[in-house]
What does this fold into?
Amino acid sequence: MQRMTRQRAAVLELLSDQGEFRSAHQIHESLTARGQAIGLATVYRTLQGLAEVGEIDVLRRDGETTFRRCERRAHHHHLVCRQCGLTVELQGDLVERWARELADLNGFVEVEHTLEFSGLCANCAKGGS
It folds into this structure.
């Protein structure tokens, strides 16, 4: 368990307040706008540490790494709107069974995976945003 630093608490609070995945740069800008004195390198280190202990999720979108604090601590997947960033957490029993079957079929053990689905949410599909 990592100790709760001022920077760590600020990043977690920000991510708890926001529902969508955000880049380290966006997080840094938001923290600065809130009056937090924190360097970009510290934001990156903090995000890496939080991801390693499962406090936040990491998603790579359009070549950029983004971060979000999720409701579920257990392994899960996401459905993300490509336009507005709305994110829905998914319990993927079928995906988990498929991953185990593929691993078994190919003689792999200790397999890890991430799977993200993207599309347009109902609002964006109707032309809203």
Residues 79 and 87 are 6 Å apart (CA to CA).
